[in-house]
## 1
Amino acid sequence: MSEFISINGARENNLQDVTLRIPKGRLTVFTGVSGSGKSSVVFDTIAVESQRQLNETFTWFVRNRLPKYERPHADALEDLSPAIVVDQRPVGGHSRSTVGTMTDIHSVLRVLFSRHGAPSAGAATAYSFNDPSGMCPGCDGLGRKVQPGWDRILDPARSLAGGAVRFPPFAAGTWQGQAYTNTDELDPDKPVGDFTDAERTFLMRGRPGSKVTVNGTGGTWTTEYEGLADRFERLYLKRDLSAMSEKTRELVRRFLVEGDCPECGGARLNAAALATRIDGHSIADCSAMQVTDLIAVLRRIDDPVARPIAGAAVTALERVEATGLGYLSLDRETATLSGGEGQRLKTVRHLGSSLTGMTYIFDEPSVGLHPRDVGRLGDLLLRLRDKGNTVLVVEHDPDVIALADHVVDMGPGAGAGGGRVVFEGTPDELAGADTLTGRFLGRRTAVKEDPRTATGELWVKGAGRHNLRDVTVAFPTGVLTAVTGVAGSGKSTLVAELIAAHPDAVVVDQSSIGVSARSTPATYLGIMDTVRKIFARETGAEAGFFSFNSSGACGACEGRGIISTDLAFMDPVTTTCGDCDGRRFRDEVLRLTVDGSSIADVLAMTADQALDFFADTGVRRRLRALSDVGLTYLTLGQPLSTLSGGERQRIKLATRLHRTGAVYVLDEPTTGLHMSDVEGLLALLDRLVGTGNSVVVVEHNLDVVAHADWVIDLGPDGGRDGGRVIFEGTPRELLTARGSSTAEHLRRATR
Ligand code: ADP
Ligand code: ADP
Ligand code: ZN
Ligand code: ZN
């Protein structure tokens, strides 16, 4: 078997005949500016080809049921091993998917409780919230339940006659509302908040046999009194909401709240399962603890029969801790995890596997990690390698680059200006190499000496969400503020509180853009209308003809250029449309040109090339915004679905520039950025502040922290051990702060 993966003449996306030999059984890091072609080598060439070759080994019967991967553009790709991609796609999942189920630690706990808990509730499934024998009957194992929001429905300060019932169909004066104002049992003029327990119970639940007289169109009649709660539940909760009119549904929704299930208190399990204890803890208690605490509880188990199972759980939990996620609890729904947290949890699964001879591919695994935790992440990557696997990592973090056995530096620029291997060798050799990455590696971080002074303050007062401990803090306005702290310390939670307190904040995050498969930078920036009009004016054809969702579009792919096959259990697979060769339009449309370019040619232009092509000032202004955020290498027609999280965030920013007096909030904007791109980003943030805005970033990148005017550091640790502001001040003051990991790492970077 060869000791190298060999790539000859790779030409996927912007790659310019890339030829590479990647050592097997080693850790190789791919570096280079954003858009230089790292992903094109690692994901679009190596990962796709190994999946394709793997599929070829199956019989045609199986193959016909597998996704069809297109052979990547390359002369030869040889000696690949099966690849596993561990990326930052959201783990997502439904509400039954939790950290515990995803890592399989929940099933180990179930075995532990069914064999060694007392009293035992039965076989293992009796402790599973995904199984009828274990799930809480009140919420079917979901832990949460939609209930009437009584503080919205009833105003305790008012009397029944004075409008205490705020739900319009039951309000005083309506035919349904009469029951509550007319009953002899309640004083219609007494504020509901002053009711005795008995009166309140009667209002809500009534009493069998109790009657009330009401007036209707047909006259006056006496009927059974039905309690307010009983009536609301019967009419709106026990019925299928989808059978009601949209208007009614909207109305009812405003009076419903989702909260912990009252039967199980959110624990998802039935009473028998919850009664079982080990060392005084139920399985729900164990699932709600943060991982670091659960490890301590399980270590105390000394029953010789239970110990091995507890030990297995501890081993798995320690892997979670080692990825810097010790602050998570097993009952945390995976849908609420960030991309970086999800990627690290996926890694945990692979660390437990005994496969060897695989190729593991990671996409910027340091995202979301404080410099303090990057070391531990590196250990995990090395452990995967030492099991006999090849580990390929796309990364910008100098600490991860330093761990590599081999570095491949792509460049020299982005897009058409990149696509070549500019350096190959060890990290030490790279530090001396004359490439962008090489030059940046040896550089020291410089702390800002002349921070701007604030123009005012935005307060968050008494914040207590998640792990925040009654945090009161001022965010200065008119400056660049960095919110720092280890993962799980509460940065996102605090910033969410800031956004909630100041609704006019411009939030620029990495979440998906929520656009259709036909969306491109051109449609997203809003220049497509003008482009179509220019084409119509110059060619005499109808403007609609040049639209992806018109008769001018290729019929086979409906203007997408690609055909996407959705697979139930895997990521969808896309292939280029054979009818239009990915050009998205019909031939008649492609024959219509402006200055020699068809609409497809225009969509293949980068922002820079398009700036040379278009004279229209509106179009040019928007194209310049794209270069302002460092996305010059994107073509106008590249599907937005192919953008990374960092690129999505920057394209959003491009459409939200040019405001004044706004508060911009960005979550780790350096994601996907090379050290040299970070300079461009900082220049952009400076311009935003310079034009009268306030900018708040959640960041780990020490160059950004050092460049900020103000730093708010949370900690000291993650989860229960975090949630406090441990430092507020300028970066220079941070250098001398004690007890802060951020300060410690900033000191190291500036030395
Ligand atoms: P990196 O990983 O270094 O940031 P990429 O490999 O993602 O760079 O991108 C290299 C070039 O290929 C860029 O110009 C990018 O816009 C382009 N590119 C990447 N993916 C696609 C795609 N699916 N379709 C068209 N162009 C793409
Ligand atoms: P950071 O942004 O510093 O990584 P977070 O604000 O995401 O930290 O998390 C702070 C704490 O709040 C952690 O203990 C985390 O597990 C918890 N937390 C965050 N989001 C949620 C959520 N949606 N549900 C429950 N707990 C959460
Ligand atoms: Zn329940
Ligand atoms: Zn097509």
Note: The mean pLDDT is 91.
## 2
Amino acid sequence: MIIAVDGPAASGKGTLAGGLAGYYRLPHLDTGLLYRAVGRAVEAHEGQADFEARAIEAARDLHPDDLDPEFLVAQKIGNLASKVAVIGEVRKALFQYQRNFALRHGGAVLDGRDIGTVICPEADVKLFIIADAHARAERRARQFAARGQAVDFETLYTQIEERDARDRANPNGGFYPAADAHLLDTTQLDIEAALRAAVAIVDAVI
Ligand code: C5P
């Protein structure tokens, strides 16, 4: 069984995908980590002429050891990730990694932006998570606060909106709900309620 979980930044899709993976005993891949790892690898080249070429190279050379979330959570890395994510050759280089993950294990939960549209259009269940931008910024702020990192709410909110706009406008992105995706609005839901709602959708389909 392949479950695709797509949605915008800080929509709760990662937590939800992790919860579904635990519930159905499937491996989980947070595909945002791939883009974040590429973004981190080219951080020093931002704004330079070789940024794109370096990003393509980093995507082609990506190694599973590069995907440690601990080094990739920063807001800055998320923003860089969305900049490398518009490069078609980067997406192409990361495609096979994601496909292999989905197929190798005979089932998986993948979360990202284009899982239901590009990576696994044949997924058994597709969830598209939405949540109000304000609620998403609040969640992200709480996550950073829990790690003892001070963040300015307004800055966070603006960055989330900028990243959404870049992701939606990405001509190579595939970031829209697939025709057969189930929309789940988590604005008013806590983690447990969101997971219950997602399990209900999956159980009704499989
Ligand atoms: O999900 P996360 O916030 O970690 O993703 C970071 C960035 O990586 C996104 O803003 C998006 O630009 C890009 N991304 C993507 N396709 C995916 C996953 C992430 O373009 N499947």
Note: The chain has one domain: 2-205.
